[in-house]
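Hi F.,

I've been meaning to write this up properly since the lab meeting, where we talked about keeping a consistent format for the predictions we share between groups. The idea is simple: the sequence comes first, exactly as it goes in, then the structure tokens exactly as they come out, then a line or two of notes. No screenshots and no reformatting. I'm using this chain as the first example so we have something concrete to point to.
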Amino acid sequence: MNMPDASRLAQLGDTLARWQVDGGPVHLHPGDLGWYSRLGPDETASAIRIWADGATPAAIGLLDGPQLLRLAIDPTRRDDAGLARRIADSIEDPEVGVFASGQATVEARGASALTRILGQRGWQEDEPWIPLRLDLSAPVQPTCTLIETIDEDRAGEWVGVHWSAFRGTPLDDVVRQTLVNRWLAMTAGPFAGTSRNLVAFDAQGRAVAVTTVWSAGPGRPGLIEPMGVHRDHRGRGYGVEITRAGAAVLREMGSSSAVVAAEGANTGALATYLAAGFVPATPVVDMSRGELEPRA
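Output, unedited:
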């Protein structure tokens, strides 16, 4: 296992892009690295772990916080027991630099050998997540809501809606500026060229919903991450509208499908994606050790 420096981020994004396939798992996507890059390229690189054979990555993980490792494995290696044991050994040894001792969760969708080995070592199944996919071979139904793709000069509108959607507390000027700076770091980072940032507006011109979408290149699944509706404007269909608009943008970028994963307990998000035309796949579970903690 090794950790990259920031100069390798674009290359790792390209590798992850090649691992995205229709019909495959909704696992770690280059868009996940792009969203994390709000913290800057050095911080993003420091959160990545690579398992490689020589110079060729076989698995790439993102430490999305100290207790959660999000993984993608080369599709040709998902049943490779030797690779799975190497990853499991790294995960369980605090000296290696993945997890400290104590509670930990591994998101290893599609990694059948690793999931099996972790289960044999006493790791438990976490709550289910639902992968959802929208085929983009045909045009996406147009939206009725005004939705715009925005640039840096409107970052404040985007982050204000996102904060309301996921935090729901008042947003003071200091926190807003911090979030804007992070958003600008993302849009100037190594993954910015694969993303588009959308805002939906109501009839009064107020920003009511946001999303960012990430392409993995032509003919591959694109990711919707994140999507949220302002708490004062829920229940009016804006989540469905912004999701469909994001999928349409991914189609324009050449994506074969749009993908997302939602917690099984998040009935609101699931209802939104289903109403937008997404088709659910078989639920998947993370593997956890120690006392489980809610995911943000």
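Notes:
Confidence is low (pLDDT under 50) at residues 292-296.
The longest strand covers residues 124-135.

If this format works for you, I'll send the rest the same way.

G.
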